[in-house]
Specification:
The structure is a single chain. It contains 2 helices and 2 strands, in the order αβαβ. It has helices at about 1-10, 30, and strands at about 20-25, 40-45. Strands 1-2 form a two-stranded parallel ribbon. GO terms for molecular function: kinase activity. Keywords: Kinase, Transferase. This is Ketohexokinase.
């Protein structure tokens, strides 16, 4: 899904791009690869 939004945004002027936020709540290695796709990104710390 995030890759499709990235492709869409590549063809749009800035005012029509979809903004994406990515939040990773659990620190698992496979989830951190998602952080490169967000305009706003947040990774929670371990408790």
């Amino acid at each position: 899904m995030l890759q499709r939004i990235e492709q869409h945004n590549a063809r749009q002027p800035p005012e029509q791009k979809i903004r994406v936020s990515v939040e990773v709540e659990k620190p698992r290695e496979e989830l951190f690869q998602l952080l490169g796709y967000g305009d706003v990104e947040r990774a929670c710390r371990r408790h």
